[in-house]
């Protein structure tokens, strides 16, 4: 009697098993829904009383447990991954589940758990037919394989170490460049392709495919830190305060690194020209006249930078000319700035960083621009289109106001030198191997004239006595 009960119980279980198979093998409808939802939501059936957190999967009633006991199933896939003597194993028989019930059996069958190699491959192809990639399709059939692949990737791959540039503008060695070291990356896509191709073997080994990840080398960085251009202006005859202003402004640019596509504003970089910011009183131009003002000389700093970045081939987005022609640079190559809005703005339109170094002494100010080599040698040229001669205003010193400068009517001294007005054009000349490739007009400027002020003495110069005439005879002449 007991044997009959056992037989009927087994028969009922097998019947339920087969019914489940018939009901759940047609899973294509589920994949149609999977295109609109997460694939795991289609293939997993959560169980409230089954704790999967230890296996890294809390939303399924079965998980891959590599350290668990093997299931007694046929057609389980076992893959050994090998890299440099190290092995990683995926064993499909290490899938555990809460209970062998209707839902579990249905989902396992849906995912080809009991299928042979050909059946598993067929399911993978069906999954891919719905638009899923190879990795997703293979992981659908081989539960837990993704965790093994992730472990391989984590333990085999390592990041490259790029060569780094340290910019030290005040040192003898301006650039310190470290060596680079290549990295390694598991080719996960290729690995899944090879798993799919070898699935028919059931148990098989694979060499882990990897790709070398090239690091930025020291030589590459050395090639990106060459001197692109430099420019120098002089201020030997300027006052100490004016020199100080030029140095203070340029110091803000010393060591500046401009990243690709970064825009640089002169005014934003140097700050407001105030005593608090270290600027002093010196001559500035207001309405075409030289007057005293805080920050006089800063325009020489902006002009020096302008010419350096211009001949470095960088893009100038904003510049302004002076009202009067500057003495420290050729016409059509000045760059006036002020705190009220006139700015010098340029862009690093190269693919690599730009490094700016400034150097000032008691007679001159220099700007150096480093980065990738220029495609062309760039030179400057200006043309005078029109000249407007300056007027000269002569003052006869009848009241002795300028007695320290002139006395007699044949003595003349300029209180203010005349400066002719000019209309000029600025050009950039692009050369390659000494040959002119292009001559490009970049700007046209008009500078006002400056009236000359000449002071002349008013007294006639006395006639000197001849040295060879005796005093007595001279006095006797009537």
Task: Give a concise summary.
Helices cover 27% and strands 29% of the residues. The chain is of the alpha+beta class. The longest helix is centred in the N-terminal third of the chain and has 23 residues, at 2-24.
How do the helices and strands line up, and which of them pair or pack?
Blueprint: H1 2-24, H2 28-34, H3 39-43, E1 62-64, E2 78-83, E3 86-91, E4 95-97, H4 102-110, H5 117-129, H6 134-141, H7 145-156, E5 165-167, E6 175-177, E7 183-186, H8 188-198, E8 203-207, E9 210-213, H9 218-223, E10 226-234, H10 240-251, E11 256-258, E12 263-265, H11 266-270, E13 281-286, E14 289-294, H12 298-311, E15 315-318, E16 345-347, E17 354-360, E18 364-371, E19 377-388, E20 392-397, E21 412-416, E22 421-432, E23 435-447, E24 452-457, H13 471-476
Parallel strand pairs: 2-8, 20-24
Antiparallel strand pairs: 1-4, 2-3, 5-6, 7-9, 10-18, 11-17, 12-16, 13-14, 15-16, 17-18, 19-22, 21-24, 22-23
Distance between the termini: 179 Å
The percent of residues in helical segments reads: 25-40%
Multimeric organization: single chain
What is the arithmetic mean of pLDDT? Answer: 84
Rg, Cα atoms, Å: 43 Å
Which overall shape is indicated by the principal axes computed on the Cα atoms?
A: rod-shaped
What structural class do the secondary elements suggest?
A: alpha+beta
Most strands sheet: 4 strands, antiparallel
- Spatial order of the strands forming the largest sheet: 10-18-17-11
Low-pLDDT residue intervals, each spanning 5 or more residues: 1-59, 474-478
Strand residue content: 25-35%
Number of helices: 13
Number of strands: 24
């Amino acid at each position: 009697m007991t044997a009959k009960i056992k037989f009927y119980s087994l028969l009922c279980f097998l019947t339920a098993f087969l019914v489940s198979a018939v009901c759940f093998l047609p899973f294509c409808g589920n994949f149609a829904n999977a295109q609109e939802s997460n694939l795991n939501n289609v293939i997993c059936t959560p169980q409230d009383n089954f704790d999967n957190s230890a296996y890294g999967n809390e939303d399924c009633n079965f998980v891959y447990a590599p350290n668990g006991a093997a299931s007694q199933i046929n057609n389980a896939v076992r893959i050994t991954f090998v890299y440099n003597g190290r092995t990683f194993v995926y064993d499909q028989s290490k899938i555990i589940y809460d209970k062998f019930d209707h839902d579990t059996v249905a989902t396992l069958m849906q995912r080809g758990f009991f299928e042979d190699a050909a059946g598993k491959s067929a399911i993978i192809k069906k999954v891919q037919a719905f638009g899923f990639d190879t990795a997703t399709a293979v992981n659908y059939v081989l539960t837990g394989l993704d965790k093994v692949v992730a472990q391989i990737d984590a333990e085999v791959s390592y990041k490259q170490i790029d060569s780094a540039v340290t910019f030290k503008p005040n040192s003898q060695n301006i650039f310190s460049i470290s060596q680079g070291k290549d990295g390694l990356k598991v080719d996960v896509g290729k690995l899944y392709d090879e798993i799919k191709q070898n699935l028919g073997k059931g148990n098989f080994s694979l060499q882990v495919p990897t790709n070398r990840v090239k690091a930025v080398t020291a030589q590459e960085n050395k090639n990106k830190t060459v001197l692109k251009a430099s420019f120098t202006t002089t201020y030997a005859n300027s006052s100490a305060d004016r020199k100080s202003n030029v140095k203070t402004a340029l110091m803000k640019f010393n060591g500046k690194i401009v990243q690709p596509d970064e825009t640089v504003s002169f005014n934003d970089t140097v700050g407001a020209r105030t005593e608090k910011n270290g600027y002093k009183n010196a001559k500035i131009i207001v309405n075409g006249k030289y007057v005293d003002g805080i920050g006089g000389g800063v325009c020489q700093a902006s002009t020096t930078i302008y010419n350096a970045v211009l001949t470095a081939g960088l893009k100038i987005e904003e510049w302004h000319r002076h009202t009067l022609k500057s003495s420290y640079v050729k016409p059509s190559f000045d760059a006036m700035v002020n705190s009220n809005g006139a700015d010098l703005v340029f862009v690093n339109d190269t693919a690599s960083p730009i490094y700016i170094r400034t150097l000032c002494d008691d007679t001159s100010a220099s700007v150096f621009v480093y980065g990738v080599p220029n495609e062309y040698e760039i030179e400057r040229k200006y043309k005078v289109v029109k000249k407007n001669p300056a007027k000269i205003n002569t003052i006869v010193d009848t009241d002795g106001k300028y007695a320290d400068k002139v006395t007699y009517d044949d003595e003349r001294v300029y209180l203010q030198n005349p400066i002719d007005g000019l209309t000029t054009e600025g050009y950039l000349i692009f050369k390659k191997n000494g040959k002119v490739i292009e001559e490009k007009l970049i700007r046209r400027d008009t500078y006002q004239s400056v009236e000359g002020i000449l002071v002349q003495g008013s007294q006639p110069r006395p006639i000197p006595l001849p040295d060879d005439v005796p005093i007595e005879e001279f006095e006797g002449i009537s």
